Amino acid sequence: MTTRIPILAEITEANSILAENLRAAFAAEGVLVLNLMASPGAGKTTLLERSIAELNGALKIAVIEGDPHTSIDAERIDAAGVKAVEINTGGGCHLEARMIRAALGELDIAGLDLLVIENVGNLICPTGWDLGEDLKVILVSLTEGDDKPLKYPMGFLTADAAVISKVDLEPYVPADRSTMRENALTINPDLAVFEVSSITGEGMDRFLQWIKQRVADKRSRTS
Ligand SMILES: Nc1nc2c(ncn2[C@@H]2O[C@H](COP(=O)(O)OP(=O)(O)O)[C@@H](O)[C@H]2O)c(=O)[nH]1
Ligand SMILES: [Mg+2]
Ligand SMILES: [Zn+2]
Q: Could you say which of 15, 81, 115, 207 would form a disulfide bridge with 194 (CB–CB 3.0 to 4.6 Å)?
């Protein structure tokens, strides 16, 4: 008979305990934490750059960048004028709560309104790891194909919002934003769905209004 040792269950349980500790620390400061997930190249960092520019200081923001290698994204965020801490997973395909705890050693969360965690580019396993966030946002670009919410349902099921990015490219690809939206809502009817272009700025207002409202809600729960 085979004896199964539930190592993964133990690891994810330890992750959940750590994530709850992080959630308490974030709540004590009243900072809204957003876990941004998408496949590589979907437009996560560009959406953050555009958001930072459009918010123009209206929110005090910091970013944790998760990447397998390099500090390219942290440098981009830094250049946009916002403090960024890079976590290199050394090839690992998702962020875990212990990595966020380590990143907080280099980040003062006191006084922040919003902490965005850009997860490692991957539509599968990041969705299974709690990082202590308030909101999970799944971003999917139109150029990936409008069937992706159906093929990768986990992220859409657990997310609070879905952002359909690169809608400016709709004329050039055989993908349809309304089909993408319908597919996302088929998986999770409670999703807030946003259609944006980080290049033309289309749809940014509505997305940033949603974030500002969530920041205000979190603040009112703290004070
Ligand atoms: N046309 C278009 N290109 C975009 C948009 N957002 C991102 N990109 C491009 O897509 C590529 C990947 O973007 P990036 O933000 O680095 O993706 P990430 O890997 O998800 O962080 C870059 O060449 C961006 O310029 C968009 O809304 N429209
Ligand atoms: Mg990126
Ligand atoms: Zn993984």
A: 207
